[in-house]
Design brief:
Layout (H helix, E strand, L loop, with lengths): L26 H10 L4 H11 L2 H7 L7 H9 L4 H13 L26 E3 L8 E8 L2 E4 L1 H8 L14 E3 L10 H4 L3
Antiparallel strand pairs: 1-4, 2-3
């Protein structure tokens, strides 16, 4: 997830499931994704659990029926807040959490270390835009290229031009970028 929603909405056959790993998006990105792709609500709720986004989780919880995938994600987190909220929702609504559909069992095991969310559009990138650490699952190594990935995925209208006075601009869907393509051309 790289905080760029310019390709949404997705066709049903192309809706991604794993939208919180290895990079968790900014909370405002998930909030906007609910608006443009409401059928992704289960993935967004799971991303909120994984990222610890309690406010957005609380806003959306009444709109989803907890399943075993959400419960498993909540169990895997050290913060019991999410599991308790899902349990209350399940009990109050009389919902019986469902197993994944046939062929979707893999969704039970899709957690791991994540990179931070990057929301700054940069005019210039250099080698400092890629970082490494030793806490990853690939022989203990992890590479974080989220700065480069996010900037590479931007529509041209969102990129900072050479003539732009700013060297960095923040993507936060409450403020910017404009979602209307005609507005993109004006920024």
């Amino acid at each position: 997830m790289n905080n760029v929603l310019s390709g949404t909405p997705f066709e049903d056959a192309h809706i991604p499931y794993l939208i919180w790993w290895p990079t968790v998006a900014h909370e405002s990105t998930y909030r906007q994704l609910v608006k443009v792709q409401p059928q992704m609500l289960p993935q967004i709720i799971r991303a909120c659990i994984y990222a610890g986004y309690k406010d957005l989780f609380d806003e959306l919880l009444s709109k989803v029926e907890p399943d075993l995938l959400l419960l498993r994600e909540a169990e895997d987190q050290s913060d019991i807040y999410f599991r308790q909220a899902l349990d209350r929702r399940t009990q109050s609504s009389g919902i019986t959490p469902q197993h994944p559909a046939d062929g979707d069992g893999w969704k039970l095991n899709v957690s791991g270390f994540f990179n931070g969310s990057f929301v700054n559009v940069q005019k210039f990138l250099d080698s400092s835009a890629v970082g490494t650490s030793f806490d990853g699952q690939y022989d203990g190594l992890r590479c974080n290229a989220s700065v480069v990935e996010m900037n590479a995925c931007l529509p041209d209208a969102w990129k900072l031009s050479i003539d732009d006075e700013k060297t960095v601009r923040r993507i936060a869907y409450e403020e910017w970028p404009p979602l209307d393509r005609s507005a993109d051309a004006r920024t």
